[in-house]
Sequence to fold (479 residues):
Amino acid sequence: MTAPAMSSFPLYQQIARKLRASIEAGTLPAGAKMPSVRTLGKDHGVSILTALQALRLLEQEHLVEARPKSGFYVAPQRDTLPAEARPIELAPLEDQAQTHLSIVGTPCRVRLDLANGEAALYPVAKLGILMRQLIYRDPTLLGNHVRGTGHPPLKQQIVRRAFDYGCELSPQELVITHGCIESLALALRAVTRPGDGVAVESPTYFVILQMLRSLGLRAVEISASERGMDLAQLKLALKAGQLRAVISIANINNPTGITLSPEDKSRLVALAERYDVALIEDDIYGDTHFDPVRPRPLRALSDKVILCSSFSKTLAPGIRVGWVAGGRWSSAIASMKYSSTMGTAIYPQAAIAEFLRTGGYDAHLRKLRHTLHKQMTRMRDAIIRHFPAGTVASNPSGGYVLWIRLPAGSLSSRRLFEQARREGIGIAPGYLFAAGGQFDDCIRLNAGFGWNKDVEHAIQTLAGMLGKPWPIRCPAEDW
Fold:
């Protein structure tokens, strides 16, 4: 795949890329002093702030380190993993976490806690008409026994669409599942055994952590920055022989909304192949991108990637039809599917296949992405206006959710979650998105349920709970 032009990246990332290349090539060896921010600014024709952003990004990647009153220096090569990136046994959830998990997603007055949208976003009426027509023409869609790995016409449509974003899939490797969660679980069961280590981004979708816990797997949490997973940290874990698999949400991560750059996608795939570990990709949000062109999955770079996805985030949350392209593990995945849930209902598969075949899906996606982007922008703007100074808001590349880091001294996400619920406001507390609960100063908010007075007032109410009355306008930083 051709990498995008450098101009498609922010200026500070362009500068960081050049400096990173010099560090990795040894031109800037360990211990070498980095150019000052003034020198970088002058050499690249940018402000001192932009130059500092580039150095800070390299610092987050552990490639450089800041020394007080001296500047930035190339960091020594790490040969041991930081404590947070070591394999950990996922202990049973504490009582409060169990309670909070059971509450997230239950009905409330203002829905800011889920990762999907209101029914009006989806073509449910058209799907209903298709279903009625299909069942009238072919009652066996309901009457026959469910068997096999999926409805062949739906598999054909998935293969056709995947080709458009760079993936060459075969119908034989596809297994249709009960949503993306079953796809991920089947993939994990196919490539791991209890006790194996599995790398995940940190923060990551809390259901993935619960899945690892239920399968008896150990989590290796790899730090994520505004750029995505820390690939240097991942490499150390791979070199230590601690991993059997890596799970990545490379496109529109949940909860951060980050999409890995094409360069980092290539590096991630290369690392997995070099150390012979299974790379499992959750691409459920790929079709909800805000950019002009859909981001390519990791699978577009290698047929060794297990690709998982679903129509739950694009067609209808309640339809629960997902799929997994298992590559060389497809036979094992198909066998496990049969022995667990046997098959996925054909009736909704047939309706989705017909919707895709007639071209309705592409028109729907254009409208969905436009609406989500508009709603996300309005919610993010409201957070910037109303939340206290020091709030850090993500800038998602697609999807439904915003990741918010609360300012120092604010309520913990646990307490904010409980207070918000008493006001009828649903949020997702950040501590659930890591095994160690280290994101208790973060929350995830959902922009998928439209923008109206109730949502705006909910944002203002949350701001008030954080210690600032909502009419005060304080700028939030970009993440």
In short: The longest helix spans residues 360-386.
